[in-house]
Amino acid sequence: MDINSKLSNNTAIILVSHGSTLPYGEETFTQIKEKFIKKTNLATEIGYMKVSEPTIAGAVEILKGQVDDLNRIIALPVFLAPGIHTNIDIPQLLGLKALEVDPRCPDGNYPAEHYLSIADDVDFDGEIQLLGPIGPRDELLDIIDKRINEALAESKLDDSAKTGILLVTHGSRLNYNKEFATALYNKFEKRCDLPSSFGFMELCGPSIPESINKLVEENDLERIVVVPVFIAPGMHTTHDIPHILGFLEEHEHPHSHSHGHDHSHDLTPVEFDGEILYPEPIKADDILIDILIAMINEAC
Question: What is the pLDDT of residues 247-265, one digit of tens each?
């Protein structure tokens, strides 16, 4: 996957991430960056939308110091599905035009404390090329299969146990995340021999409990593998979803994302007497690195 022949020595890459108050995201994205650089030998930095460092503007400054006569930056959002962040926030944080009108603030006049208002401006005279998110690529199914096999290897039940698979994503008030999850699941269902379904943590349906209940009732399951289709561990994968699955006895998590939607999650635990296996999310899997490289190849 040699992409250097397609890119000049004056090009650099920004891997764009959301940012998190927990350490897991930064640890994961540092590993992603290190693996990406090792495979491509391209000047690469992470740019966080908020909370974490470096910011997107800060990543540009770092790359300007690393690459002589830098004249092109390719910004690659390491997000699975499109949404407000990829279509509105990230373009504006890069100094580009948003891809659609912001439903949170249609007139574009954000409150003074909003992260789009307080973010540093990008100082760069060259070309900035913003790519799209990952989307429901076939290669993601290979990562999902790996996580399922890893989980089953840890099961306390034997191979004859009636097993179902549930893919879980966050959910969104907009259609983007549901469209992504539906398209990915439709591909997964065609290659999975076990009963399967998908569910959302919040904001849209079917919910995780609804999907589990339906799977169990229709298939008399003894074991379920719940696969979190998330890039990095965070509050949702380490607290919210485990609580829904009944792994945590107590949980209080009314939280504010500080970007236009404050809410309390409905984290009512599921009722299932069988075994629930819950593998890790995608993280810095080698397949993910290959996907990111392929995305740049396709765009260049």
Answer: 986 544 444 444 444 444 5
